[in-house]
Structures are given as C-alpha cells and as structure tokens.
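#struct-help
A.M.: can someone run this one for me? Single chain, 174 residues.
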Amino acid sequence: MNTIRMAALIGICTLGFTLTMAKALADSVDVTLSDADKAALFKAAGAVQRKGAWVICEPPADSGAPASSGAVIDMVRDLNGDGRPEAVVSDGGTYCYGHAGTGFQLLSKQANGSWKVITGNNGIPEFLKTKGKEGWPDISVGGPGFCFPVERWNGKAYELNRFEYEGKRCKPQR
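D.P.: on it. Structure tokens below:
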C-alpha cells in the first residue's frame, strides 16, 4: 500500500473514531434542570414534599420501618436520541422496595414541556447498549442476586426481554 493511501486510511479511521467518541460524550452529558423543572419532575414521578424532602413511598408511622431518605434525581440526559431529556428518579427503603432497597421511575420530557413516566421498578436501572424500538436502551434492573431482568421498549412499554448477568444470558433461580 502506498504512503498516500495509508495516510488516507489512517485519516478516515481517525475521523470515524473521533466522531464515535464525540457522540458517546454527547450522549453521556447530563442536562441541568431549573428548580421549577425539578419540582415538575418529582411531581410527575409521584413524589410529594415532606419535611423539605421529596418522597415517593413513605412507610406508615406505625409500621416501625425507617422513613424514606427521600427521592433523588439520579440522571438527566437524552437516552433515546429524540433531543429531549429523560430522567431517573429513585427513592429508597426496604418497606416500599423490598430486598432491593430502592426503586426508580424513568421519565421523559414531552414536547409540551411536561414529564411522563415511561417505566418504573424496584431495583437499580442500568442502561445497556442494546436497544428496543425508537432508540430506547434496554434496561437491566439490578438488585440482590446474580441474574437480572432486562427490559426492552416495544414502542408502548418496557417489557421483560431476557435475564443477564455481566452481559451473559442466565436463568434466574426460583
């Protein structure tokens, strides 16, 4: 291969790598929300304010269970490439979320500016590289154990697609 062809090939490969990395960085950039948008997000997730904290699930006072530590916004970024942000709001406590100790809501900002719950579950969401319809990433829902459900967007809802552990298919123990 002559020097000119080799230089052109290296240039093309470098450009491809640079564009891929730029897209990966753009996809991972978190979005900053105003206080009003944060309040709207928490409300859409079903949270209410109690003693200065947003709470999704609060155990009854007579249950003896510890109070929720409060809901938090874990992530805000465009997950499906539609130009609008999605957000993960999580809340903790074994009374409400069992052995996982945490639950989450995935919300998407709509064209009219409101937030809509896309899915929610007990556990910790991990967004995978594999995708369902409309560019939505598959979600591995982590918690106790070694074989986690992976949900996939079908165009209307997230549904169970498979079980995985560390990227390999598995069968959950029953």
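A.M.: thanks! The longest strand covers residues 102-109.
D.P.: also worth noting: Residues 1-28 have pLDDT under 50 and may be disordered.
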